[in-house]
Design a protein that fits this description.
Blueprint lengths: L1 E4 L1 H12 L5 H8 L3 H8 L8 H11 L3 H4 E4 L16
Antiparallel strand pairs: 1-2
Length: about 90
């Protein structure tokens, strides 16, 4: 099992909507989430993200949890993750 974070996509959406660059430092300042933690989340590094962190990010981006976090099941053979369409 794996959890994939879609922080980069949310930042890109916000940049598109507001027609400006949005840095992780700006997100960190607005949410109170440390910039290093945001970087780990954005790059899908092995990080345990607290529910409160997800809540703050969802509030900042104005999105539901599913737009920020995605569950990706492992392939039946145990080798890596399934593709989003459910095929290995």
């Amino acid at each position: 099992m794996a959890v994939r974070y879609r922080l980069k996509e949310r930042v890109a959406d916000l940049e598109f909507r507001e027609k400006r660059v949005v840095s992780l430092s700006e997100v960190a300042e607005a949410t109170g989430v440390h910039r290093v933690t945001l970087s780990k989340i954005a790059n899908n590094k092995d990080v345990d993200v607290r529910v409160g962190t997800i809540e703050r990010l969802c509030a900042f981006f104005g999105c539901p949890i599913g737009a920020l976090v995605e569950f990706v099941p492992e392939r039946p053979d145990g080798n890596g993750e399934e593709k989003p369409d459910g095929h290995p």
